[in-house]
Design goal:
This protein is of the alpha+beta class. The chain folds into 3 domains: 110 residues, no CATH class; 139 residues, no CATH class; 115 residues, Trna Endonuclease, Chain: A, domain 1 (3-Layer(aba) Sandwich). It is built from 10 helices and 23 strands. The strands form 6 sheets. It has a 6-stranded mixed beta sheet with strand order 14-15-16-19-20-23, with helices on one face. Strands 1, 4, 5, 6 and 7 form a 5-stranded mixed beta sheet that branches. A hairpin with a 2-residue loop joins strand 6 and strand 7. Helix 3 packs across helix 5. The radius of gyration is 26 Å and the shape is flat. The termini are far apart.
């Protein structure tokens, strides 16, 4: 029987791939509720395994070759026995990135009977994250910006909405232009026609700012969003539409605040690009004229994936990404922690990952795999260079 259990469990893990290996007993300090687009999960805070006899507690379903491992969850003097997956292989207990166990609210209430979760209201971060994920806010703001700014011109008679073709280095997408342009480049010496207002639609800080204003004037609270998120999101979006000029028009009293909020995250990306430009100038032995940094909102980035161009007889195009920790050499290749990574077209030649204290690593745009969340990328080839 032990051999059968081992065989079935091993085959199951190899087949499913995503199932972590859990141990016989875990203890945890408390439980916290988080709301996502896909449902509500309960995280077991500070989960620590206290018995390492893997799959010692296992049940095999009669007349089948299916075996299910159980884990005992310990909280104070209470113990709860929970299966790791069901008979169909659907995960019940899972492990988060930071090592805490979690399960759906439905499964939590089924297997941890009697545990008092207390208040499970969504917090402001939860609400903003879900609004951002569902992208209704994004599409609404795109419509609002065009509705307001396509009818306006600057003091110099320039349009405030459309595509900008400042020069061959800066051809932008369609959006708000010639108004609150984004500063970029080494020392922030360059100014794009592309407006910072174009970034409001995906900025969590801006969403939270607008939610606070909405709750102040309507007396809607966090519990209302928790109880019926879909309806409350619709009301929030309708409020934005109704007050669009008041909130986002060129005379709005809120633009300065939202711009400052957005610059906090935007500047980190611009500073990273400044670091990358200085590194690449040194590596390629170039002056400022030897490198082209594309402006914010450039189609070179959004369509072709290019952040900078090395101006050689045969140009070299780089995509710049953050380096968010230590690089690990594994049996599968070089594991690089990053953010918002995806597969890029062949219009990009190389990636440069830039971290703190001048750390960087460069790979060719080939032979790599990206994690589902885009927070890790594994390159199978050796790096071109690193520091």
């Amino acid at each position: 029987m032990k051999d059968l259990i081992k065989k079935v469990l091993t085959e199951h893990l190899l087949t499913e791939g995503d199932h972590p290996i859990l141990y016989d007993k875990y203890e945890f300090d408390g439980a916290s509720v988080s709301h996502f687009k896909t449902g509500t999960n309960v995280f077991l805070d500070n989960s620590v395994n206290i018995v390492n006899d893997t799959f010692q507690d296992t049940e095999c379903i009669e007349n089948t070759d299916i075996c299910i491992p159980f884990t005992t969850l310990v909280h104070g003097s209470n113990e709860y026995r929970v299966p790791q997956w069901d008979k169909d292989g659907k995960q019940i207990l899972k492990i988060s990135i930071n090592g805490n166990l979690y399960l759906t609210l439905k499964d939590f209430e089924k297997y941890l009977k009697g545990y008092d979760l207390g208040s499970s209201d969504m917090n402001l971060d939860d609400i903003a994250a879900r609004i951002k994920t569902e992208k209704l806010f994004l599409s609404t703001l795109n419509e609002i910006m065009e509705n307001i700014y396509s009818k306006l011109k600057s003091d110099d008679g320039e349009p405030l909405f459309g595509e900008s073709v400042k020069d061959d280095k800066c051809k932008t997408n369609r959006g708000v232009i010639n108004f609150r342009g984004v500063k970029y480049g080494v020392g922030y010496k360059l100014v794009s026609d592309w407006s910072i207002l174009n970034y409001f639609n995906t900025n969590s800080g801006v969403i939270k700012f607008l939610l606070r204003e909405y709750m102040n004037v309507t007396e809607v609270n966090l519990s209302d969003f928790t109880k019926n998120f879909k309806d409350e999101q619709t009301k929030f979006i309708n409020w934005i539409k109704k007050n669009q000029v008041y909130l986002f028009g060129p005379e709005s009293q809120f633009l300065d605040k939202m711009e400052r909020i957005n610059l906090t995250s935007l500047n980190s990306g611009i500073q990273r690009e400044q670091q990358a430009v200085m590194i690449l100038m040194k590596l390629h032995n170039l002056g400022e004229e030897g490198i082209t940094e594309y402006c914010p909102g450039s189609i070179e980035d959004t369509i072709y994936g290019r952040d900078v161009r090395i101006n050689l007889e045969t140009p070299i195009y780089y995509q710049i990404k953050p380096l968010n920790g230590l690089i690990k050499k594994t049996e599968n290749g070089y594991l690089v922690p990053t953010h918002s990574m995806k597969r890029y077209p062949k219009t990009v030649d190389k990636f440069i990952f830039v971290g703190k204290n001048g750390k960087y690593i460069i790979f060719q745009n080939e032979n790599y795999e990206v994690s589902k969340k885009g927070d890790f990328v594994t390159f199978k080839n050796e790096p071109i260079t690193q520091n």
